[in-house]
Amino acid sequence: MLNSEQAEPLYIQLQKAVKTAIHNGTFTQGGRIPTETELSETYNVSRITVRKAIAELVHEGYLTKRQGKGTFVNVPKIGRRIEHVISFTAACKSNGLSSHSVVTEREILEADEEIAPQLQLQQGEKVLYIQRKRYAGDRPLMLENNFYPYDRFAFLMDEQLEGSVYELLRNKYSIDPNQPGETILQISLADEYQAKLLETAIGQALFYMHTIIYDQHGSPVHVGKQYIIGDRYQFSI
């Protein structure tokens, strides 16, 4: 309960109480918090005090107000530097989140006029295409589409691929994907297929990242075409 006799203003005490409720899971990430009236009654403060505390928490990024729907706890964004080669698993870990992956497609294709030169192949040579749905915590965040030179990476057909492919390549096959090539970042909108897999709305803003990753010898490892839910991820340069 808040204490009006403390030197600390009531709205700041309420801010701290709401933050504590977020951190201990009482107010869940992505969930709606109680209304101003409910908070006023729960903490025995005026609605003016509640409004000021909520406004500060919105400004600090803890909460988001949605017109006509209420106030919601923000889901923390996962951050990574765009020019560094860091696996999704490592990015989640550095941001305090667990991660896992589900393989949704795995097939052998022919290199087309776009993929062939990027993988240093001839058109028509075999390419291993692997699509994975990648989770941060218990929610899908990324739809990963990677294209590997088949002759060199055929072994990935038999791997589970629930965790980091980069760690697997380093630890089991002595292939170190440590050199990023050209990376293009664009904004895209989720189509019906992407929205279904990512469990989001059609038209949701996504980051589309096209990248080429090379190993320690300068040989291409994969071309990546990744779709990432935009409001849960941030890039720094």
TrEMBL record:
GO terms for molecular function: DNA binding; DNA-binding transcription factor activity. The keyword Transcription regulation applies. This is GntR family transcriptional regulator. GO terms for biological process: negative regulation of DNA-templated transcription. Pfam families: GntR, UTRA. Residues 8-76 form the HTH gntR-type domain. PANTHER family: MANNOSYL-D-GLYCERATE TRANSPORT/METABOLISM SYSTEM REPRESSOR MNGR-RELATED (PTHR44846), MANNOSYL-D-GLYCERATE TRANSPORT_METABOLISM SYSTEM REPRESSOR MNGR-RELATED (PTHR44846:SF1). Keywords: DNA-binding, Transcription, Transcription regulation. It comes from Paenibacillus terrae. The keyword rRNA-binding does not apply.
